[in-house]
Amino acid sequence: MNLTLLHGEKEILNLGLLPIRQSLTSRRIISMVETKLLTFHLSLSQDIVAMTTDGTSVMACIGKLIPTIQQLCLAHGIQLAVTDVLYPKRQNRNQKQPPTVAEEDDINMESFPVEPEADFLPQNDLDVESEEENLDTGFAVTQADIEDEDVEVSHVHYAGLIDKVRRITRMYRRSPLKNENLQEYVKSDFGSELSLLLDSKTRWNSLLAMLERFCSLKTCIMKSQIDLNSSASIIMEPWEFEGIQHLVDALKPLRFTVEAICRRDATLLTADAALNFAINKLDSANTPIALELNAALRRRILERRTEYSSLLQYLHTGKLEDDTLDEEAFKSITKTRICELVKTLVQRLTPSDQVEAERGEVDVDIEAIEEAPARKKSKTDLQAELAEALGEVEKKAHKARTLDTDRNLLSVIKREISMFEAGGSKGVHLDLAYKYLLVIVPTSVESERVFSSAGYFCNKIRSRLNDDTLCELSFLRSLFQVEASKTKTDDQHQCLNLE
């Protein structure tokens, strides 16, 4: 298990890996997280704004047991939306009830499948992106132990088409002579060789890459099949290419959306914008497969998007309903609920003695002046006048600019909302809530990157590392990256100052 802390100006610090040697309950996981945070002098309830996790049942239970906001990974929600349409699970005959939403995340972690024959291909022949690209922009879903028959494409219209594309792709990839014939037409049309791609289990968007390349080489494939006198079973008809193109046009917006929300600077605001972009593009496509994906995506958004996203939208725009967002997928929030959420955030994350500390600074200075030895009577009078003048400073303080920690906090928040909607700036409490919510990340892809980077340390050559050693190496790698980025930024500021 991994803990990654996002703090400050989007600074990402990996707190290390926690070994799991046995099955854990949700309360046990909470205890492990709290113990790990205490080593960094952090409190789960008072210092952590939100926790972004996957949607497994144990993680969903954790969100109900802690006061911290829980955000389920939206990138995995998109994966599940695609899976719902292209890979609907086959119900077991002995299963009486369908799985719950949390159980779906437990068992439905499989990416797009590949035929068993593809395992015999050399590793260099598998057209996948480099590991560094996957760490920076990609989203890899953990592969679960699922039978192959449960993850085969079973869409009524596209199962046969995708299987046909795979068979044609394997035919060219396994035969150098046939591939040479295809590449002659490819070099004539594109100026360089372009190989057909085969989808992989470890990349959720590899199916799109395979179909996209297949459609781009449509003319070359048709010419090559004529030269090779291919059998009718593997010859693609024009209407089949059209169907594949519809699937490509429907999956493209989802791929770009995943890349956008998996960026390190992504927030709940940018996630809403990216998801709304995907919905609009699927609506405009107006094809059967696009409409199915659109419905599945809306359903997954409703499951994973929280009311804190709506609160952040309100604090960002000052409107209860944003006309640019889809009303069905992005539910609005009431003013009463806004007040309650802001009050909860401020009371939980803001120290109760902050106001007293700020007000006490002036009082201490006044007492020090009063206790100073008076050499002359006129000096004492001046000190009294100065103390009175300093006391007036405290009285003139604007009440809306200080944190109110008494029972009137809710009424203060309501007044701030009224001023904010009237065109004024956000008050102290609204501004605090806005800054807190901007820290929440929409995906758990940072932890996936940590798991991938752990492979640099623990590999076949270095396979006897202790758990604590691997945890410390992972933490130090992240720490050095943060320090390096700070040093680079400081150098840039120094150059600007010298100029």
Q: How would you sum up this structure, described in words?
A:
By secondary structure, the chain is mostly helical. The protein has a domain at 348-438. It is 59% helix and 4% strand. It contains 21 helices and four strands. The strands form two sheets. It has a two-stranded antiparallel ribbon. It is elongated, with a radius of gyration of 29 Å. It starts with a strand and ends with a helix.
Helix/sheet category: mainly alpha
Number of helices: 21
Round the mean pLDDT to the nearest integer and report it. 75
Q: Largest beta sheet: what is the strand line-up? A: 1-2
Most strands sheet: 2 strands, antiparallel
The topology string of helices and strands comes to EEHEHEHHHHHHHHHHHHHHHHHHH
Distance between the termini: 47 Å
Uncertain runs with pLDDT below 50, 5 residues or more?
A: 91-150, 355-378, 397-404, 489-499
Determine the strand fraction and express it as a percent band: under 5%
Specify Rg, calculated over alpha carbons.
29 Å
Name the overall outline.
elongated
